[in-house]
Amino acid sequence: MRRFRNRTEAGQQLAKKLSAYANRTDVLVLGLPRGGVPVAYEVAVALNLPLDICLVRKLGAPGNKELAMGAIGMGGVMVLNHDVVESLQVSTQAIARVVALEEKELERRDRAYRGERPFPDLQGLSIVLVDDGIATGATLRAAIATLRQQQPARIIVAVPVAPLSTYNELKAEVDEVVSLVTPERFYSISVWYDQFDQTTDEEVRHLLLERPSVISY
């Protein structure tokens, strides 16, 4: 079973699969905070591309926050995993309560990571959307829906690991999907890493300062 030492190594290996995008002035790398940002940073550095973030928040199921029943993104985007919602019989009121909490956290993170810096204009750009792995895909789909509002030229999803079924589904939803490992038996993202510590807000801020989202035309 292929494993990654940490997010840094995963990002470096992922960059090799994305070499066709190196040094291009029409490409922007976006990491999904928090765990996707260290991976995205390594991709951006290796390919000499600018880096920014795409803020989304998972909607944890009542009583099991780790299980995603959906996700929200900036601009009022919400994606629900209807299979999870129906199987757990989650009420509309319960979903609304979780959404309200996560909207506050989304706003907090936007202020913490970006401050007064506006989100870059994505129209006409090719976006490499990076996370440290895909589980249900709900968070990533919210990110994709958020990005589509700005009409980028292309969306490329790039991750170290994704379940084979989700990988195949996403290929029909975006322009390109790159995943280094696509197991049929997935378990969880952490299983594919030797070191999978929680990424901190401070680390995200530091990486964004190290690799700013400045695009030269």
UniProtKB/TrEMBL annotation:
Q: Give the lineage.
A: Bacteria, Bacillati, Cyanobacteriota, Cyanophyceae, Oscillatoriophycideae
The Phosphoribosyltransferase domain is annotated at 10-181
Question: Entry's CDD domains?
Answer: PRTases_typeI
> What's a single GO MF annotation on this record?
glycosyltransferase activity
Name used for this protein in its record: Phosphoribosyltransferase
What Gene3D superfamilies is this protein classified in? 3.40.50.2020, PRTase-like
- The keyword Transferase is assigned to this record: yes
From the record, give the transmembrane residue ranges. none
**Which controlled-vocabulary keywords does the entry list?**
Glycosyltransferase, Transferase
Q: Entry's InterPro entries?
A: PRTase-like, PRTase_dom
